[in-house]
Amino acid sequence: MVCYWSELARDIVLPPVGTATTLVRAVRASPAYVSDQLLAALDKRLGADFELLDFDCGHMVPQAKPTEVAAVIRSRLGPR
């Protein structure tokens, strides 16, 4: 699990091809932290390995939507 804000401070750094990636976007964050450029680059590079989830909240997603964030993490971790 990684939270990153690199797109705020430098050029976009993308995960390697084949890396399953879920980006959780806070749709009420202002200014928007996730750019259209980042989304397009992730989609182009990762294809089906890229998942975008939009949450109706501000930028503090884990605090605003703890149940939903926990479900995303559990789905990525898979069965034990």
Automatic annotation (TrEMBL):
InterPro entries: AB_hydrolase_fold (IPR029058). This is Lipase lipV. It comes from Mycobacterium tuberculosis. The lineage of its organism: Bacteria, Bacillati, Actinomycetota, Actinomycetes, Mycobacteriales.
